[in-house]
Amino acid sequence: MIKFDVLSIFPEMFSSPLNFSLLKKAQEKGLLNICLHDIRNWANDKHKMTDDAPYGGGCGMVMKVEPVEKALAAIRSPEDDSLIVLMTPQGETFNQIIAAQLAEKKQIIIICGRYEGVDERIREHLVDREISIGDYILTGGELAALVLIDAVSRLIPDVLGNPESTLGESFSHNLLEYPQYTRPAEYKGWMVPDVLLSGNHAQIELWHKHESLRRTYQRRPDLLKKINLSGKDKKILEQIKLEDI
Predict the structure, then answer these.
(1) Does residue 244 surpass a pLDDT of 70?
(2) Which structural domains are found in the chain, ordered by start?
(3) pLDDT band for position 190 (50/70/90)?
(4) Continuous segment of H or E residues that includes residue 32
(5) 93 — phi, psi (to 5°)?
(6) Half-sphere exposure at residue 211, Cβ-oriented, CA atoms within 13 angstroms
(7) How far, CA to CA in Å, does 146 sit from each of 5, 8, 196?
(8) Cα–Cα distance between 184 and 81 in angstroms, integer?
(9) If DSSP codes are grouped into helix, strand and coil, which group holds residue 93?
């Protein structure tokens, strides 16, 4: 089981997404433990302030270090096997490899930034890893945290009904997933490829690899630089390149 502890000033934002579909079932099965914490509970003034104006001037407000530090001290595992993650556009870009690394942890504490960001001392002294979900700005880290939780949870054993479900998914092996079809075999003249109806599993597997390489080459050729293609895969890729000329 993996435990997610989420620090936010708007924990209510998580209630609906975490109570549907896969994440809800995984929690009910005891495979996930997702705890939401309001950072305001660790603010020490009567107004429960978690932000203040930045030193040196500037627009907006900055999240204070003290409530965050106190919250982390209260919820961090005493076994010291937890990882503290700050969701920030300045972090490393989240991908499937990082998701797999996080899935090995027992406790992940996620700090959701707000306003103009967090006091730099949070980054310097309290955080193990800074993660971004892309090169754009969100109002806060809550939506990014939900993306991280969902992606990591799929990799935890028994969360998915079929453990092989993740093997062919896009980015699992730095290749985009091949096209998928289901019934009916024909709709408005739009046909399912004959090979998928043939029952020839060897040919279907070859088609899957061919189309996965084709889609990656056409849409994300940068991914091909990250993997060591087999000699067979290289021949398929050369064939695809010739087809596109």
Answers:
(1) yes
(2) 2-153 (3.40.1280.10), 186-243 (1.10.1270.20)
(3) very high
(4) strand 32-38
(5) -75, 125
(6) 17
(7) 12, 12, 35
(8) 49
(9) strand
CA distance 94 to 235: 31
pLDDT at 226: 87
SS3 145: helix
Amino acid in position 169: E
From CA 20, how far away is CA 29, in angstroms rounded? 13
- Start-to-end CA distance of the chain, whole Å, equals 50
- Three-state DSSP at 52 gives strand
DSSP calls for 112-136? E--TT-B-HHHHHHT-SEEEESSSS
The SS3 call for residue 84 is strand
Tokens of 227: 């993997």
Please report which residue ranges of 16-91 form alpha helices under DSSP H.
Answer: 21-28, 65-75
- What angle, rounded to 10 degrees, do the helices at 142-153 and 21-28 form? 60
Q: Using one digit for the tens of pLDDT, what is the confidence trace for 194-222?
A: 999 999 999 999 999 999 999 999 999 99
Classify each residue of 17-52 as buried b or exposed e, where b means 16 or more C-beta atoms within 10 Å of its C-beta: bbeeeebeebbeeebbebebbbbbebbeeeeeebbe
Residue 175 bridge partners (DSSP): none
Q: Are 61 and 51 in contact (CB under 8 A)?
A: yes
What is the identity of the amino acid at 20? F
pLDDT score at 164 = 54
| Residue positions counted in the chain | 245
Chain centroid to Cα 223, Å, comes to 18
- How big is the CA angle at 95 (ends 89 and 100), to the nearest 5 degrees? 125
pTM of this prediction? 0.88
